[in-house]
Automatic annotation (TrEMBL):
Keywords: Metal-binding, Transcription, Transcription regulation, Zinc, Zinc-finger. This is Putative zinc-finger. It comes from the Bacteria. Residues 6-40 form the Putative zinc-finger domain. GO terms for molecular function: zinc ion binding.
Length: 84
């Protein structure tokens, strides 16, 4: 079975919900989400954002913003791991 890092899962979440990934990858995403509380939290935020935006067209964030968001996610996760 494929395994993903949290960063890889973040990259795949949109394709996962668009049903645009193969069954093996879909199963691996499900497995990662079942084992990773941080990614489940990210998924919850992702779905809340999708619901809030509805069908409105949205431009993807600039690369710099995406980089900052991923860095913040990593820092938050690293803080949780340090607290354990």
């Amino acid at each position: 079975m494929k395994r993903f890092t949290c960063d890889q899962l973040v990259e795949l979440l949109t394709a996962y919900y668009d049903d645009a990934i193969d069954p093996t990858t879909r199963d691996a995403v499900r497995t990662h989400l079942s084992c990773c509380a941080d990614c489940r939290g990210y998924e919850t935020q992702f779905l809340a954002t999708v619901r809030a935006l509805g069908d409105r067209p949205v431009e993807p964030p600039p690369a710099a913003m995406r980089t900052r968001l991923l860095a913040a996610f990593r820092e938050r996760r690293a803080g949780r791991l340090a607290d354990s």
